[in-house]
Amino acid sequence: MATVASTVLGAVLGAVTKNVVAQIVKLLEKRCELWKGFSGDIDFIQRELLMIAAAKEDQLSEKGDPSAVKSISMEEMHNLALDIEDCLDRILHYTEGEGTASLLHRIKAVGLSAGSPPFATEVKQLKERLRAAHQRKLNYDVNGSQPDAAGVSSSTSPADMDTSRVQPVGIDKPKRELLELLQEIEGQPEQLSVVSIVGFGGSGKSTLAKALYECPEVVRLFPCRAWVMASEHRGHSKGFLTAFLEKLHPGASPRGGDVHQLQDHITNYLNNKRYLIVFDDIEEEQWDCIKSTFPENTRSRIIVTTRIQALAEVCCNHGTNGYVYNMRSLDEKHSKELLEAVLRRHLPGLEQSSTLIVNKCDGHPLALFSVANYLLRKREFTESDCKNFWNDLSSHMSKEYAFRKLHQVLLNNYRSLPGRPVHLKTCLLYVCVFPNGHPIRRSSLMRRWLAERYVHDPDPCKAVVVADKILEELIDRNIIRPIDPSKNTRVKTCRAHGIMHEFMLHMSMSAKFITFLSDPQRSNYRHLLMDGRPVISGGRVSNENHHHTSPAHGGMSGDEKLRAHSLTICGSAGKDVFDFAKCELLRVLDLEECKDLKDDHMDGIHKLWHLKYLGLGATISRLPSKIAKMHCLETLDMRKTKIETLPVEVIKLPHLAHLLGKFKLGKKDLKISELGKFLPKESNLQTLAGFITDNNPGLPMLMVHMKMLRKVKIWCNDNDGKSLAELSAGIKKFVEQELDTSIGIRSLSLHLRNSSGNILQSLENSFGYLSSLKLHGALSGLTQFATSLCGLTELCLSSTNDLMTNDISNLRRLIHLEYLKLVKVSLGGISIRKRDFPRLLRLCLVQCPTLTTIEKGALRNLISLQLLSEHLGDLPGIEIRSHEHLQEICLDSEINQEAKIVWEIAAKNHPKRPRVLYLKRVDQDEMGSMVKYVSAKRPAPETECSVIQEGRQTPEVQPISAEELSSALKEATVAGPSMAPTHSEAPRLDREGI
C-alpha cells in the first residue's frame, strides 16, 4: 500500500507545486515598492518549487516502493508546498486591486505599516524550512540507492487465486452474442474479422474471452488457435512476436531472427489456415507490431481485450469486419449469485449486508470475488461489520491476501494514465470529492478542475479544451463511465466506477488530499466532503450514513481554521456546518445537493474572498446582499435554486465566466449611459444560461458588450417592441462576433413564445458562426436564420406551431450538420435524399406525428437513430440496412412488444448488429418541452437485443428470418455456464477479474 500512497502523494504534490508556481508568477507580475523587503525570497521559492514539481513528475514514472526516508521527505515537501500555497493565497488577497493606493488601503485594513512588508516574516520562515528540508535530504541520502523495483512494478501481478471452483456468473448472454459473431454465416465471403472486448480492469474481459475460446463449437470451427497474454510482453516487440509464434507452433521460433523475420514466419504459418487468436490485455504498440502478420483472405477471427476504448476501435477496424463489445457490470441479482457461489455456505448477517456490498462493488466481478474470499474466514458479517469494513478498505487491501489481485488491478488502472501532464492523475483523484455513485455533470466537473487550478492555461477558452481532453481520456480508459442516455457525441453526466472510487478515496485520504468533514484531522486536507444522504440497506432507509457528519463531531464551531480549498455537501448537514468563514481559503463551495441550507446561512459568504465556484441548491431563494465582494468568483450555478431575480451587481464581478440559472435582472430601467458601471472593463462572461426576458431590456443591452460569450440560453416572453428590439440586437451581436471558432462550441438556445417568435424573422439577414442552435416554440422564420449560420453541427427544434414543409426541406443546406433533433415536428411528405446532410451522424425524432422517409443510400454516415415515440410501428419508411455504420437504435420503452421484436430482428439482420436501447420519457428538458429520456429497464422480448458496438468496415450479410434467428440463438446456448475453463486450461488472470 505504500506504493499506492506514494504514487498518489506524488500526483497531488506535483499539482500543488505547479499551482504555487503559478501563484508566484502572478505575484511577481504585481511587483511594487512594498515588496522590496522580500522579493528575493519570492524568487527563491519560485525556483525551488519549479524543481520540486519537476522532481515529482519524474518520480511518478518510477516503479516500485520508495524508501522509507524518501516517503517521509516527499510528505515533508507536500506539507511545505501546501503551506506556501496558503501563504501566497493570503498575500494575493491583499495585492489584488487598482494600483498601490488600493494596496496601501488593504494593508492598513489589517494593521500593517507601509514600511513593513506584509507576510515578509512568514515567507522567510518558509524559505528556511525549504533549506532545512534540502539539508535533511542530503544528510539521509534521500536520492541515493533505490530498492529493487522489479518485484513490485505495475506490470507484475500477485500470485493467482484459484477460481476453478467458481462458475462464471452473468456470462451467458454476452457469450451468446459474441458466439454469433464468431460463427460462420453461409454465403459470407472469406474475410478476417476482429472482435474487441473493452472494459474497466477486472470487469471480466478475460473470462468472457476464455469462455468463447474454450467453447466446443468454436474449437470445431477454428482448428488453429492461440491464446497470448500480451500483458507479459510490454515494450518488447521481439519477445511478443516470439511468444505468439511459440503459442502457434511450439519450437518454430527462428534463432537470432529479427522482428521482420518473426512477422514473416507468423504469416507463412497462418496461410491457408482458419484460425482464432486471442490477445489478452493488448496495448497499441503491440497491435501495431502484429496486425500486418494476419492473412486476410480467410474466415478467421481475432479477439483482443483492452481497457482503452480508442484502441478497441483501432483493432476492430482492421480487416473487413470488426466489432467492439463493451463489458457491462453485473446486475444486483448476478452480483449476489457470485457472492453465494464463492461462499458456498450460509453466513449469518450477510443477507442484511449484501445490498451494501453489491452497491459498493458496483457490479465489478473481481471486487465481488475478492470480498467473498475475504468473507470465507468470517463466522458472521453484520451490517455494522460491513460498514466498518468499507471504512477501512485501504487497510484490508494492504494486509489481506484476498484483495491482492483487486489491489493490483485498480493500481494498474491508475498507473496506466500518462505521467504528463501530472494533472491527469490529480483530476482523477479529485472525482472522489463527489459521493460514490453520485451523477457528475461534465461541465461542473471541468469548471471545478479549472477553479482548483488543476487545469490551467493563460487563455480561459483553451483551458476548457484541455479539461475536456482530460475527461475524454478518463472516459476512453473506462475509468470514468458515462451514465446518461445517448444524445450526441458529448457525455453530459458521468461517474467513477464504484470500486475505483472507493480505492482512490482511501488513497486520497492517505495523501491528505480528500477527507470527510467528520474527520478530526480535517484541517490538514485540501478537499472536504460531507455525505449526509440516507442509506438504503437491507430494504430499510437509515439516516445513519457511515460518513454522515453530525454536529457533535463534524461542525465547524470554535476557533478552528480549515485549509480546505473545496467543500462539497450532499444531503442534510446539521446546523453547525454552515460557518463557512472557517474555510477562508475555499475556492469551490458546492451546496447543490445540500438539503438544509437556508438563505441566511449565505449572508457571510462574501468573506470567502478566494471563492471561484459556487453551486447552490433547491432550498435557496435569494443571493446574499454582499455578493459583489466575491472578487474571484468564476462560476455561479443557480440551476437548482428558487432564485428568480439576479442582483445586477453579479454582472459586475470581474472574473465571472459562467452564470447558470433561470432568472430576471433585478434593476429596472437600465440606461445605456449606465452600462459602464455594470460591466468590468473586459467582461469574462462565457456562459449566460440563462435569463428570462421581460419589459426590462437590461440583460439584452448588456449582451452587446459581452465579447467572450460562447453559450447563451434565453426564455423569451411576449414583450413590447422595445425589449424585443434590444433582444434581437443582443442575439445578432452574439452570433456575429468574431471568435476563435476552433476552441470549444458556440451555442444559442431560445425558448420562444407566440409574439417573441418574431425574433427569428428579425435575424433573417444575420450571418455568423454557431456550432449549436436549440429552438423551442413558435419557429416562424426559422429557415433563413438557421441556414445563414456557418459551421452549424447541432440543431434541435421543438415546435409549438405547424412548420411549413419548405421550413424543414430548406434545412438540407446545412451540410456540416452532425446532430439533428426534431421534437413534435410533422415530417409527412418529406424525404431525405442521398445528397442531404452528408455529415449527419445522429438523427433524433421525438414525438413526431409523422416520420420522414429516408431514401436508400442517404445518411450513409449515420451511427445513431433515435425514434422516440410510444406509437412507433415497425420500420416506418426506414431501411436500416442501408445505414452501413449504424451503431445504435434508441426507441421509446412504451412501444408495443411486436414492434420491439421487429426492430430487434432488423438489428440482428444488419451487418453491424446495432444495439437497441429503450428510453423512458420522464420529465421536461431544460428548454421546457417534454422530451427528456432516461434509460429504461424492460422485460426481455423473445429475441435478445445485441449490445455490440461496431467498427466501420462492413461485409454484406444476407438477412435471416425470425425462425432462423430463434434457431441460431438456441444453438448458441449449447456452451452455457457449464463450459467454464478449468484451472489447468484457463489463462492466468493477472490483470482481469474472474
Automatic annotation (TrEMBL):
GO terms for biological process: defense response; response to other organism. InterPro entries: Apaf_helical, Disease_R_plants, LRR_dom_sf, LRR_R13L4/SHOC2-like, NB-ARC, P-loop_NTPase, Rx_N, WH-like_DNA-bd_sf. Residues 18-97 form the Disease resistance N-terminal domain. Keywords: Coiled coil, Leucine-rich repeat, Nucleotide-binding, Plant defense, Repeat. Residues 985-994 have a biased composition (Basic and acidic residues). One of its GO terms (molecular function) is nucleotide binding. Residues 141-167, 972-994 are annotated as: Disordered. The keyword Coiled coil applies. Residues 142-158 have a biased composition (Polar residues). Pfam families: LRR_14 (PF23598), NB-ARC (PF00931), Rx_N (PF18052), WHD_DRP (PF23559). It comes from the Eukaryota. Residues 433-503 form the Disease resistance protein winged helix domain. Belongs to the disease resistance NB-LRR family. This is NB-ARC domain-containing protein.
